[in-house]
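Example 3.2
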Amino acid sequence: MIRELNAGIRALDEAEQLRRETESAIIRKKYGGLGAFGAWASGGIISSKTEEHAEAEAKARDLGIHRDSILWFLRQRLELCCRTQQEMMETRLKRELEKNRSMLSRSGATIAGDFAEFPPSARRNSLTAPAAPIPMSEDGQFPSQGLTEEQIQMFEQGNQDMMKHFENSLDKVRTAEKSLLEIAELQSLLVNNLATQSAHIDQLVADSFATTENVGGGNKELKKATQRTSPAKYTFFAASGLCAFLVLWDLVF
């Protein structure tokens, strides 16, 4: 689930990058051609941007900052979910280990209690009697001294159940450890993405302030340029008058 959410956020980020590049290309295509010629003809500075051009870029930049902030918020919330999930998995793993320890202690106490049910005489005889070779049965196995067939089957069944339980518990522990490793890797990736996106947002904000200052300075330069005489303007008017005179000359003569 967390990986799917991270993939969804990454898809949104890629779509936003594509939209931003497309919008920048449209703005350059719209204001990059005739805008420079118009600024030159009006006596302005060719490298300066028009007010509409600067406003369009500022609007696109503000929209990009807003959407980057949303993506940063989503990644931060997902990182918090990863941290919560990691804490839950660690708690679950601790409880499973404690459960196994307590069950092992109860099993040891049960076995000790079962052996305590043997007759005292058998235990005294085993302690006081001299050591002697243990006789073997006809099939080559050691006989079960003081244990009935039912007790032997009960011990075997208990051992099998205990082994199955420990195997299941071990599988759960391995699964939990694998999940913890995956969550830790995803959390590290999210933290790195958050740091990168925070730096990108700060850079966009700084660029926005710089653009605002540049637009203000450009407007002042445009006002100064319109107030002084422009050679380009006189050249344009002279060329237009000459062309009109030549056309009229051809029509008359």
